[in-house]
Design goal:
Layout lengths: L6 H24 L6 H14 L3 E2 L18 E4 L2 E3 L13 E10 L2 E10 L8 H18 L6 H14 L10 E4 L5 E5 L16 E4 L2 E3 L5 E3 L6 E3 L5 E3 L2 E6 L2 E4 L9
Antiparallel strand pairs: 1-4, 2-4, 3-11, 4-5, 6-7, 6-8, 8-13, 9-12, 10-11, 13-14
């Protein structure tokens, strides 16, 4: 199902997007060497509850996972790139951490992800990997707008990732959001320009470039959720929820002035 939001729903989506961004900003500012992933999950739960919102992950049980997920945020470390299940692990200096959060507030969902380096160590290639996903996300947002083919968005993302030298996996990518977390259309992280669904005002898309340094193959942990690079290489992931408007695209998952 492809859902087109009304102007009233779009106003709600802006509030949800700001909440997601504020939570991620707060986590980014407080995560440090020694922080346990279960602490991150607990902090996130408190902020979601304080806002009167709901995590989209707790009861999430898709066919590809071993659900329900049971936690409020995805925490992926180093070679883990997607759906990282929070567990008893204390972050080390130089860990590459991805935080992925989807929240529902007033019946509308927003979804965002950030990758960051913990502490002061900077493993070889880690900063370039994160920066490539951020640039790819910016490129996809820049071309999105009414009447634009979905393939143009995917092509813009994929062009940046491929030019940076990274293989691109198309099993998981961006997606529509609205009153639920995962909706059509699927947004692959590479594609052919001019192809696919034409974007319409009121459509919400979660664009999420993610890459693995030297492979496009994934493996799944025994927890049934955490997806890792098949070679054990570093990974990174950046994501924003955007709204297609009459004249372009609006990023909804930007922090407000005062984070929670």
């Amino acid at each position: 199902m492809i859902e087109i939001l009304s102007p009233v729903e779009l106003r709600r989506a802006r509030r949800t997007g700001a909440l997601v961004a504020d939570i991620l900003q707060t986590l980014t500012e407080n995560v440090t060497v020694g922080t346990n992933l279960l602490e991150v999950d607990a902090w996130t739960r408190r902020m979601i509850d304080a806002a009167g919102a709901e995590s989209c992950y707790v009861d999430y049980a898709p066919s590809f996972g071993r659900g329900p997920f049971g936690h409020v945020i995805c925490t992926s470390v180093n070679d883990a790139v997607l759906h990282g299940l929070p567990h008893d692990y204390a972050l080390a200096d130089g860990d590459l951490l991805t935080l992925d959060l989807a929240v529902s507030l007033d019946g509308v969902v927003a979804d965002s992800a950030v990758s960051l380096l913990v502490g002061t160590a900077r493993p070889a290639g880690s900063e370039a990997l994160i920066e490539a996903t951020r640039r790819a996300l910016d490129a996809g947002i820049a071309v999105a707008g009414p009447g634009v083919a979905l393939g143009d968005v995917s092509h813009a993302i994929g062009t940046v990732l491929s030019a940076a030298g990274y293989p691109v996996n198309t099993q998981f990518g961006g997606h529509g959001v609205g009153t639920t977390m995962h909706q059509d259309p699927h947004v692959p992280n590479t594609g052919r320009p001019g192809r696919g669904y034409r974007l319409r005002p009121g459509l919400l898309l979660a664009l999420e470039p993610w890459v693995m340094a030297d492979t496009d193959e994934l493996t799944t942990d025994d927890d049934g959720w955490t997806l890792r690079s098949a070679t054990g290489c570093l990974t990174a992931h950046s994501e924003h929820t955007i709204a297609i408007t009459d004249d372009g695209a609006e990023i909804l998952t930007l922090p407000s002035v005062d984070a929670p």
